[in-house]
Amino acid sequence: MLQALGVSTDAAAVYQMMLDHPHHSVDQLAAVTGLTPTRVHDCLEELGQLMLVRASSENPGQMRAVDPEIGLADMVARQEAELAARQAQLAASRAAVTKMVADRAEQRSTHGERLMGMDAVQNQLEHLGRIASTEVIGVQPGIQQPEDLAAGHAQNLAALDRGVAMRTLYQDHARTHIHIETHAHALLSHGGEVRTAPTIPQRMVIVDRAHALVPIDPADTRKGALHVTEPGLVHALIELFEQAWSTAVPLGAVSPSDPAAGLTDHERELLRLLGSGLTDEGAGQRLGLTDRTVRRQMASIMERLGATSRFEAGIKAAQRGWL
């Protein structure tokens, strides 16, 4: 399923034919793939950029296919390197935001205030919860105590019921704590969104993209919080959250770190068929499924992968070694 690695359908067909018929000319490749010679040239250029073909030493002016064990492995390695770079960027962003918060923690101005102790923090959260009109973002590392969850539970549901969007990010191990899972599913049932990831930024709550609460001391969040309204700092915190959110897994999906993560043989075949260019109807006919069932299964796969499109689902499945 080369499409999952970013190879177009036509280029994948040309690459396969070059592997099967290494001495075919451009005209012969065009004949067996049903493409025009011009389109084959375009495909060769694409494959060259992906380092899946290279100039032949035996036949000057002709291209040869790189062995899949080398070429495709190199492609996956490059994608893994890009993912590692993104994770490094997230770590750098986290460090920059932590320093920014620390630099301002001693200041009190019209752009923020120090809230000392959990009572002061809870009071401010209640106030912000009442005035929230568009969105509430939360990052909850570690394990929240049942009493802390209970303190804001009713207010969170009330905000969701009046149309406020709510996204909450937990660490993966929170899935094993019943009181957190119960609270999270209550949010989901009222229209909220909950995701988990192995590592997430520091604790924060952002309301209407205008107010942010972050701990004064990340090592002991019960000491209090800094209420920030400075636009630059709030924006930096939102960017940090969005980076972490984009790679997190929706609650209800299987976490990538879970041993049970992956695709069934049936789902893997469905992804392969759709990636080869078949429509929902065509893939359904191959698998004995209705179009509706195909769409439902693809929606489930996309949710588990945190993908917004089928193409992205294919790439993420390949990156995780599910294909």
TrEMBL record:
- Matching PROSITE patterns: HTH_LUXR_2
| InterPro entries cross-referenced by the UniProt entry | Sig_transdc_resp-reg_C-effctor (IPR016032), TrmB-like (IPR051797), Tscrpt_reg_LuxR_C (IPR000792), Tscrpt_reg_TrmB_N (IPR002831), WH-like_DNA-bd_sf (IPR036388)
What range(s) does the HTH luxR-type domain occupy?
A: 256-321
A GO molecular function assigned to this protein is:
DNA binding
Question: What processes does the entry annotate via GO biological process terms?
Answer: regulation of DNA-templated transcription
SUPFAM superfamilies according to UniProt = C-terminal effector domain of the bipartite response regulators
Q: What is this protein called?
A: Sugar-specific transcriptional regulator TrmB
Species of origin reads: Streptacidiphilus jiangxiensis
